[in-house]
Amino acid sequence: MNLLNSQPPPSSSSSSSPHPCCRPFRPLCCPEAPFKATPRTAALVRVRVLPLRRITASSAWASRKFSSSGLLVPKAASVEADASAISPELAESDVLKALSQIIDPDFGTDIVSCGFVKDLEIDVANGQVSFQLELTTPACPIKDEFERKANEVVHALPWVKDVKVTMSAQPARPVFMEQLPPGLQTISSIVAVSSCKGGVGKSTVAVNLAYTLAGMGARVGIFDADVYGPSLPTMVSPENRLLEMNPEKRSIIPTEYLGVKLVSFGFAGQGRAIMRGPMVSGVINQLLTTTEWGELDYLIIDMPPGTGDIQLTLCQVVPLTAAVIVTTPQKLAFIDVAKGVRMFSKLKVPCVAVVENMCHFDADGKRYYPFGRGSGAQVVQQFGIPHLFDLPIRPTLSASGDSGTPEVVTDPQGEVARTFQELGVCVVQQCAKIRRQVSTAVTYDKKMKAIRVKVPDSDEEFYLHPATVRRNDRSAQSVDEWTGEQKLQYSDVPENIEPEEIHPMGNYAVSIVWPDGFSQIAPYDQLQTMERLVAAPS
């Protein structure tokens, strides 16, 4: 199978329709993967044939056996031989093949390919093996299962007598770190908690989610973005209730409570703001971007109600990783929430979960739904959001918000805490999946000399010729903004041009740096309309 490259004419282009704790990896390109062919243009002047690499299965898996948990354990090549007769190379191969059977349930690939088996040491003579499993978040919900399975599959090797597994975490850098303000460059994932309507319990969800993630082992911060009515000073009780300034760096030092970093206009010593929208946007920008957040796994942003300038400013200043939507059972709440979901959709921020607050209460052995049912399920069904969580009406949940201690802290084994634990696991898994999808959405294959595109939340994968991508730039450098006249000519771009760097730009585009120093912003929507490299029989 080869790739056929059809070059478009200079002034036209054909269009075609368009966990998680592992380090992002670059998957191999399978030659049998389907390619969607597009019709050739009438101006086809050259055919470029690109070979595809074939992948074959290793014969080392011909002999296998099952462990007690059902995992396949590769049979050592020297199973009948003395341990002293096994070479270090063969022993290492045995261990890695055993570990490669542990599959990450969300990525669908093994932990060796994910790249977090570190510091492998083998003493063949004494049958001792030690290694480190380095996760990208300390809040991994299945880290104990990984450790157990790793011990089991390596112990099953005939020559192994002792196994030592060390668990650690090295959080990944933001995938678009270069575009972030300095204060946000050490935050792995930024999650917005939004409702677009006041009084539905959004701040309660944001605070309890943050402390749930902290209880799972993550480093967490909360940013209260509601300047008109900040809730954070009431819901938590830090010893220092005023933000401090670093005079040398001219930055803000956040306050802390139970290990979670906190920033709110309510801690600025001015209470609630009375100011116009543009001023509020500036205050939020300053509070968020000039704070010394330090190394964080998750920053939870408690969004203010509405879908106006303040919300848009937040989404544009900060490349949000994901959003959690909070609603109540009433129809009126659904109407406002729907507006917020559409806003996030336009801004290419994936909504990963819906929390329906004040759903029900239990009394006299029965469950009552005082506000009706179905608002949260309607959001999930209408907008395709994958996860729905119900929160009951609990006097203790309301009281904890007023007392300054979150419910998940005061009653970590209660029903509410269990629901937030499930929500926390969902956020960890979905953020990791999104980070991986974004980091591998657009890559350059040097052997094939083609740009591979797999847009997040899409199963479609296709390839573009680098020259085609460069010629389709729509910036002011390539197209006159006033007349629409094409300034970049077809012949200006050499056929053998190759990108030097490709970096994600939020969840909606990539930045491609070309050899002439030009940085092209290529939105996913535009890449999907470009003429593609199509499959042709060899």
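The above is record 1. Record 2 follows with the same two-line structure.
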Amino acid sequence: MFFCVAIGVLISSSLAVTRELSLYEAVSGGQARLPCNVTAPSVDDSVSLVLWYRSDINAPIFSVDCRHGPLENSQHFPSDYLGDRGTFDLSTQPALFIIDPVLPEDEEEYRCRIDYRRARTFNVRMRLQIITPPTRIVITDQNSQRLRNVIGPYNEGSRVVLRCIAEGGKPPPAVTWWRNSMLIDNRYTEIGNNKVENQLFLDISRQDFKMSLMCQASNTNLTSPNNVTVNVDMNLKPLDVHIIHTEQHFSAGQHASVQCRTAGSRPAAHVSWFKDGQLMNGSKDVADLKGLWTISTLEFTPCSSDNGKYLSCHAINPAFPNFTRKDSWNIDVYFKPEAFISLKLSHPSGKLHEGDDVFLECRSHSNPGITEILWYFNRDLLLNRTAAGILIKNQTLEIKNVKRRHSGNYVCSAENVEGRGNSDEFKLKIKYPSTARLSFHPYEKQVDGSHSDEISEFQNRFNTKDLANKSGDCLTTEDNPTFQYPDPYYPRLKTPPAAVRWRVTAVSHPPEQEDIIRTKDLTWEIKDEEFRMNNENTKPFISTSSYPQVCHQDEYKMSTPV
């Protein structure tokens, strides 16, 4: 291949005709083709001799001798300079002087001399320019680290700086950047040492993932340009995140599973689960081989307190720590009712007395709503009994004109589609006037200081005194408490005991009304006149006319609720 450029110089001679000087290019290592028209100027004329000269060599470098025959049968004589690299092709029009392979030192001015048998000698001058392609092309980053094949990964949205350096080449090559066969940068600079550089600044986006960048260095159209290609790898942000759930609601205490799918991240995104901002554990991730999507499965057991909370799935590419793509879902958790009882009174005093109206309200927390409420009293089902003052309406139990028999444990039971939940027992206490009772338990103290064990057998066999409605709730001598020795003991009673100790116990009735129960021992010396026989049954008894006053409020600190 060759390329001709007319340079507009005309050389004349009185002995020969010379055409204007032309420029021909050849690539080092290829072929140089220099044309020379050997057609005779007239039909009665013919070529006798063709000589090729190089301007810096006096002798011909190639000769075609046709003096003894037609041109087609001529003899060809290359010089030692060319050897077998030089040929003259007469089969083309015009004929071509071929140097193959052409070397850089072949660059020079050449002349083709044509001697005709009758016409004047004809000279054609031309210049051969040898082009040397670049010897190497190197792509580096901005830190001069060489890059090959796949480069990166670079973060989406970042700026990439690439340097393409072409070494060698005559003339200096044009260094250009191409993207997918499209020219994107043709600005290059000679940087010395026979090098040319083109520095590319490229702001890359998601669409540039896997793009092909080619650096091309060319200083001739005679051959294909030298080039180096790299493919850009990138870190990509997650494009979307979507929570996948087949159930519209969960049931508290039952195993639940939910999935989150994220796509578009490279490498595969890390998926985290949060419940109202609190990190959850127990998820498993599966990513595709190319890392463009990830499916995370979360398994957990919801509880009633999770109802209404936000379950969120966060997708993060570690290359973008400050960027998160997320999806949230307001979870609906069904759970059986959690019930409790609250008390309301018909008056603001805060105390519950006989005759008051009582309102017990069954409050509950449930999802979905309550379908039925039942009431229990001391484990027995309560029903509406208007005549007895028991009214059940919605979640409220009303007891009119409450009595002491209404004291006890109440439970409300609430039901929804998830099941039934019972409240804790609510103990209802009704305050009413109580009856206090003093019990006297005697035991004997002998003169010698010893105690008689037998007397304990007669415990609870003596008079007791109800003190209800007594002024001051006191036991006085008017009550004349008397201890009478029973039959089994009477025969053994030889002498009056020196003293009798009375154990006095204050007990309220009924027992659940007790606030304080105390016991106090009282001792009286027994005088002879106080120990006497009962005329009715001739059994001894002790009359305590000197018995001191005993008040259960003062002595025993016992309060009687009203």
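Residues 1-15, 434-562 have pLDDT under 50 and may be disordered.
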